[in-house]
Structures
1.
Amino acid sequence: MLDQVIFYLFAAIAVVSAILTVTRRNVVHSAIFLITALLATAGIFLQLRAEFLFIVQIILYVGGIMVLFVFVIMLVNLDVAVRQLQFARQKWVALLISLALAAQVGLMFWSTGKMPGQGVPVLAAAPADKLPLNSEAVAEQLFTKYLLPFEIASVLLLVAMIGAVVMAKKRT
Amino acid sequence: MEFVKQYWAPLVCGLVIVAVLPLIVGYVVLVERKIMADMQARLGPMRVGPHGLLQPIADAVKLLIKEDIIPEDADKLVFWLAPVLSVAAALLAIAGLAIGPAFQIAKDVNIGILFVVGVSAMGIFGIVLGGWASNSHYSLIGALRSSAQLVSYETAAGMALVCGLLFAGTLNITSIVEAQRNQGIWFGLLAPVAFFVYLVASIAETNRAPFDLPEAESELVAGYMTEFSGFRWSLYFLAEYTNMIVVASVATTLFLGGWLRPFSETHWLNFIDFLPPLLMVGIGVYCLMRAPKQPVRVQQLFMLAVAGLCFAVALVLAAPVLVPIIKPSLAAVVKPYYEGIHGGFWFVFKVSAYIYFFMWLRFTLPRYRFDQLMRLGWHFLIPLSIINVLLIGIAMIVGQYFHLVGWSLLLTTIPASIIALIVALFILATEQKSEPQKASGAAPDSYA
């Protein structure tokens, strides 16, 4: 019961602030609502007893990426007209992509009961005291079963980082 | 009963902390002013109460009844939100800390130390948004400086924490301290370079001198706080000092043995247990000696009250040590009380020592220039901390190979730390050689 209340609370906050993120005209307000949406998502992770994902969401997205977002927004003080022009062009493409995504998610939910082996898997809830320790469980999966994807993702990030450094060096 | 224990006890604890923390912060400020005065051969605040002991309360009342000014062009909502965000993040981080083996609001959180670090890092939004919302150049530049500083130093601090966590093998705060008890050595001794990096990075993260660039009053008036007044300003102040307490607690937990007594497992050094009550008795006696010299009757009474408080605390500290000696049959009953009371004392003592070090630095070192600050962060501390993590990991593997535990693990970790330091200094030296014009003159920097 309490779990459901918490889930719907965080989900509502996430959805409302996600909508506000794209509708606000002021970029900084948008950023604040994006932070709220990310925090609400972190709250849902916590409600699912995935503490590690909860804190990673906060450290990486809220504490890292969003700080840089806000930093850039403040450094590059965009003019209102430029802002509107820039985003107007992508409107139809964005609509198409989000419709496709919505259709995909809808199909997944629709197929859940109807096609065996498809859709959202329905798992029985594990009792909270019998779950393995969260960060240990994540680490074990990451370094045994998913080692190769993990390493590839790391190398990708490293390449992006080095690329950024090289580009920044060239300009000065 | 179970329900009360699970939900209401942490809630009440949290409320108590939120209520008491402003008072503690007020007295930390008073102590800071007193230390500053001592280092500058002055007396410091002396007017309100004996030796200015009631100064924090007077300051708080003054701040609360001050006019609350919101600039005309400010973004009202964000201006209102920003200081609250700063304080909320700082207070939330306290929830994860363990002051003793039994006293922790969010008990046995699996992600313990990550929670504290991650949540307290959110306080930066308070600074950035506050600086932006005031719609003032000084504020904006202060906010940008602060976010650049925090992002750069958080990397170094995180890497330093990883070093300590390698020894602990867990993120849970209680287990980290237990690991230090089991290994018989504080991780700060095992990884001195990591402790040093965390020390420097934590000063930079709390925006304290010599890294208080965001609020450098000689260049930026008061940085991001320029437009804030009265209660809002005091919220920022509260957040800053709470953050100091949080980073000091994290360092204490991970590097200084948390609530453990020095040499907690060495039994012939058990007489250390008598030092805390003796210290309190000493302070009480000093207060008694000073009481007749106070000029006003109220001040004399106040001094006597302080002495009485010290004696009471000494009694509380002495009881769990003396009872097992007088009546050995009660030893098992007293044990948890001993751990709680003395653990709390040692934790507070270590945190205070760490904060004292902050203050000492503040009144000793001149402020860094912004490009110097950035160079220290990116060219020295971050490479140092990354190399240190690598070498400490290797040292641990080598230590395992030779079955080294506790103090003997120093044989491998100390050389590793020294090598890391040498390599980092070498990197710094080559950087300076390749960019000689930047090292000498002021660097061209858009937001310096």
2.
Amino acid sequence: MSQTLTTAPVAKAAPVVDWKGRFLAALPFIVLVLLVLIVTSKQPNFVALGSVRGLLESMAPILLLALGQTFVILTGGIDLSFAATASFGSVLLALWLPELGVVGVVAVLGVMTLIGFINGFVIAKAQIPSFIATLGALGLYSGLGLAISGASNIRISTGYEAIAWITDVRVAQLPLAAILVIVLAILISVAMRVLNRGKSFHAIGLAEQALLMSGGSTVRIRILAFTLCGLFSGLAAVMLAASQHSGGPTLADTLQLPAIAAVVIGGTAITGGVGGPIKTVIGALIIVVLRVGLTAVGVDPSFEQIVYGIVIIAAVVLTIDRSRLGVVK
Amino acid sequence: MTSTSTTIGESVTTTRGAQIKKFVVGAGPLVALVALVVFFAIASPTFSQPGNLSILLTQLSILLVIGVGLTFVILLGSIDLSVEGVMASSSLVFVLFAANDRNDFEFGLLAVVAGILTGSLFGLVNGVLHVRLGIPSFMVTLGTGAIGIGLATVLFGGRAPRLLDEGLRAWGVGSTAGLSNLVFIAIVVLGLAFLVQRFTRVGRYGYVIGGDEPIAKLSGINIRKYKISSFVLSGTASGIAGVMAATQLGVGDTTIGTGFLFTAITAVVLGGTLLVGGRGGVIRTLIGVAIITVLANGLILVGVDPYIQTAVQGLVIVVAVIASGWSLRRRVRVIK
Amino acid sequence: MSSPVLEVKNLTKTFKNVVALDDVTFEVRRHEVVGLIGENGAGKSTLLKILSGIYQPDSGEILRNGKKTVFRGVNDSAKAGIGMVHQEQSLVTSVTVAENILLGSEGNAVIAGIYNWRALNAKAQKQLDKIQSPISPKEHVEDLSFAQRQMVELAKALGVEEFSADEPVIVLDEPSSVLEGDELEVLFAQIERLRQIASVIFVSHRLDEVLRVSDRVYILKDGKCVAERNPETADVDELHRLMVGRESSAEFYRENDQKPVHNEKVVLQVDGLGKSHAFSDVSFDVRLGEVLGISGVLGSGREELTRVLFGAEPFDSGTITLDGKKVRFASPVGAVAAGFGYIPAERRIEGIAQGMSVQDNMFLADPRPVSFGPFLLPKKASEIASQWIERLRIRTPDRNANISNLSGGNQQKVVLAKWLNSPRLRVLILDHPTRGLDVGAKEDVYTFVRQLCTQGIAIILLADTLEETIALSHSIIVMRDGEIQSRFDASPGNKPKPVDLVQQMV
């Protein structure tokens, strides 16, 4: 052989346990526990049933939105329209419930899912960045919602029975709806493990090029992620309409930042590929406990936005995988 | 070494199709603007009255300042979503330092400087976090935008502080030669921005970095410095816009910037500045802002629901991005 | 004889387990055009990267006008007056010609960050004048043709003159590959002009061009500088032989395991396939169990051809027929479903799914063998994964290890397993399959290729070396500048020699 040879190298030794990775993965949970401890020390009745009920009730719509967003962020994208879409959905629900009852609920969920599908379709087929496409969608559905509702909330009186159970039904004094959302998150997590294509979203986030060159239909997976996000926005819309007894064009808008924060704080990396629904549940819990915690510690509620902003940036910094970013824009 | 990359079989942009596209992107917006003006002049008698034109120009001013700042960031291929938060914070800092009904400060022009610098500071933070920590710009500015609103909320303290300085108030409500003073401020800002874009490294290297960052890096350019500078320019512009809005409304308010971000991005896109970076400029943004403002003004006169406008703007952004990116589509391509 | 303006002595550079440059010595004299030829992997690219300061040599020295110099980076090389016109376009299309020519070195045309356009354009014009180009410095690069852009690159490269008192050394790396017809003549005229104000190193795979333009020619092979010749007296055949001649061991390539395929059915048939600016009128067929090797240098069109077959790029003309049915894929999704597999050259980005486990990687192309409907069968998956690890001798801590931690060779085996797992596999495309692999891994790959053939899988091979191509293939087609130059039968006992291939490639 004319080629100069060196001795065959040994296969790279398995690295010692990835302490940094493990620590970061456990961090959200540690933070949650710490927060609960701190808040309980200041407000002992924090862990009382009534308080927990309130916590779960405020967490549920955020968690629904965050779960939908989780699918999208796992693929490495983002959906900036998800909260505005939910608001739009609540407006539609308020208009359709009186006439259609439960069918109205199904119709709204259908429309929301379709909106998500359109987002995903456009993004995947036209190959445009998701943040700008969903920024446009944000304007579109926000504008439509405002136009249809005349920029005001619509009270739901007749037809409310169809969604009344969401706020009324309790199980062991805890809101059933909230528990169902958590169960849903668990089911999704299980599905991701059990289905042979369950890790598709992660795969796109981690190695889209390799997936493409292995014959994987990244177009389909991406569309699915955004479609699911739309569906979950719809679920959030229904839940919000139930708790507020009304639909409004800005009903869910204030939840946009907390929901994104929940996903990111839970440990799902903005670069995609890492994370999942259970992490998002932890993230959502952190968000709501943080809210209560801030007031308990005596922080002015007007600081809330600042806290969200800082927390989001911090969480992104900790979880971002720069090696996969290439040129950052 | 070799890259079996996506540039196989690409010919240079001298094909017929590319030339047509270049022409449309180049002259299109201006033609559209003229067409719109003509249309509304015909459709509504009120449109071409001097009073309306004056209102139109005033409406255009603040949007133009924001759009001009955004242009620098978009030329890089990045985005700045913190505009509304920065405007809110700047307006409050400005009002609270000028003569107001909450405290005894009366810093006059220095208050203006303080307001503007607030914007610059936010821009600096945006740039540094984005460049040094490698966080995508949409994420950073989403976070700092929230911080901006939050800071404004804290400063707001439950009730809007009112601007009592008559001299400064006149900037917003007074007029010179029949045009609102805000228009002149906007013209000055536009002029300065054009000079920066055409005659300074911040401007020119912005085009280079946005056009081909890897090559820029190989040439030994300090990319970080120029990226951060562009974000500072955008933040400063938002700061100026916040101050302008405060003089116009007479208060500092957390909601002072609501709706501007969206409209400004639409304006930049409509003007022909590409979101992928490297192409466009502040003059194009001027045309885009004019289009948006004429549309907004005209449609209201014709009786169209303003919220439908927002919806249409959203659609326009999506269509514009699809159109400009259509020829770049490839089978094996990753866009997140 | 004029003194050398640039000398390279005993330059050596090794990457991991590959020696890219081995004790290379050559010189460029004043106002000379020196040609560099060599086939793929000869070391030309590495040498140029060292000269431009991108790589540092492991040993040896570089002398500029007799003085020892070290290039610690791109700027050092430019300051030493070495200007490079790269193979890939390196102009920023969003700004003007002047800005490109002076990018990063505007000097006193930009003071305190403020542009003096008149000065900038004048400076750029000075460079353009050197090559007597009619292009205006104010033009926007996006409006220029490829040929014009190359002239701008040349003017830019000449800019290094401003940095050093010496006359520049201009390196042209495959400058003619993007040019056609008259544009070539313009290029050659430029090189003649350059001769008077600089010294030139001309690198190209087109032997006839190199011989036409150069005063002296160096031949690189396997990282060594094997010969120096005068083009006027050189014998083209001898040059071909110098470029390739090496002993090959039939044992290494498992040639004994190669089985003849003359009577097998045709699996893939390609007729008049063409893709603009890449290749044209390509026709061939591949039978069950056959290895078709495609030889060619960079720019020959062979890489583009395989990507078109896999559906990763569209084609403009011709047909592809698989198992008797005409096919046209909209993307790799269709190709994989129809039975194509692809082991890519860019292993880390397109071959393996970094961050995922070895096992997950194995079922990336087709999870059906380990599924029941939509559900994963974890036990079956781990069984099959373990089997592959054993069969292919993949060295990994376990099947759940992160694939990014494996060595290149083992990663490649996982990629192989991914395609072997797919029961649909009919045609497997191997694009530089042994690149970056150590000897042991290479041998394994050759063994598996033989095994695949016995299973009836058709293989299209783009190999790293001519020896590999010849030893592994049943038939070979040689491509040059987008067309098939010739075909060779390479059945066992009837193998062509590397020289025969090279003659067609360059």
3.
Amino acid sequence: MAELWDVLTEHFSELSSGFWVTVRLVAISFVIAIAVGTLVAALRVAPLKPLNWIGGLFVEVFRNTPLLVLLFISFAGLRRAGVPIDPWVAGTASLGLYTAAYVAEALRSGVFAVGRGQIDASLSLGLDYPRTLRYIVLPQAFRTVLPHLGSLTIAMIKNSAIVGVSLLALPDLLKEARIVQSRTFETNETFFWAAVGYLILTGLATLAFRALEARYAIRR
Amino acid sequence: MSYLFDPSNWEWLTSGNNLRFLLEGFLVNLEIAAIAIVFSLIFGLLLALARLSRLRPLSVAAGLWVDVWRNLPLIFIILYLALALPAPWRDFYEDNVPGFFPEALQSGRVFAGILGLVLYNSAVIAEIMRAGILSLDRGQGEAAASLGLTYPKQLRYVILPQGLRRMVPATVSQLITLIKDTTLVSIIAIEEVMRHGRILSSGFTAFVGGVEAPVLQVFIFIGLLFVVTNFALSRLSRRLEIRERKRTGGTAGPVGGLEDQVALAVESR
């Protein structure tokens, strides 16, 4: 037991800096995922076939490719091709776009739940298609799929650990835990604290989305 | 763009054994996935039943177990097991691994990878299955009980066939995630497609007189392997679902197929 606390007090700076790197990674990727996911969902439900195909292609490609492969392509691949990409850009873009594919699918199902009647009504009131999406469909779609977005966010927090162990070597929580472990050989203790860090993050996300749901969610 | 599609940057694919080398690596991923899928489904069902059990301590313990494993990053679990699994366990695996398993799966390291995949995915699948069982009308179980079926028989003939069928789409999308996640075992030095990709693109082939294989193209190709496999699987599952719904009259609305899609069906009820 004593060792458990020793590891935390002696290596608190490494572990907490890793924790905050993970937080930043998740926060930036979350913004990318929501923004791109919304855009792709809009493409998928647009009244123009080619746009639907582009959206569908995005979803199928990013949803079916392992995140680790995306990280290899966006970092090692692009660097080799002569694009001097920053590890942070590669990491957040990969994690963000990967999650965006799932967000787009969730939002699309939310859009279908809004119902044809409301869209027709809005169009007949003279709103154009982008405005119908912006003011009528998307606000309701977001509220309908809030629980989905919550579990996607939790999945994203967990997936962020892949970024640290890949070639990018961003010093996130898992990476820092590995560094501490390789120095101290206190495997159980170090990984225990890293687990606590991840459970804090997923727990907070769960609570945050539960609060959002209590306020905004639409039950269908 | 010109770099990406330059034929000289794709020459590696047809030269020497490169393609075969990558596909052999990919086969290892699929084999690991197959083993992990079988065990995840079995343990997932057992965990779901334990969690729904009327024995309070059992259901609390199962709930805690499931919540811890499904809220930890899979890569974290795999790394931890690789570092912390007692050597006798690994030896036990090496001694008892069936001989027909391919060579890449004979090493004790694979055990940590497969165990990690199973621990994580059985927890997620347990939640999916629990949601499916809970989404059934209470009356189903009660009617079965009043017909004199024992609890195991209620499960076997009434509850599980209906509850699990509802969760097929969510389960399939979790299994697709599992297939993607097999790439994570490359972190603990198992020779699968990611490792083979790195070996190919490390410049080694150029060194021994072959054609250079650029990282970007190699990993785009590996990505395509996964996209094709997973896309085919998700199409197949949708086909089956449509056929099934035609057969059963299609009243049961399946719960969405998202990654880690868990007890939403229950919670939003």
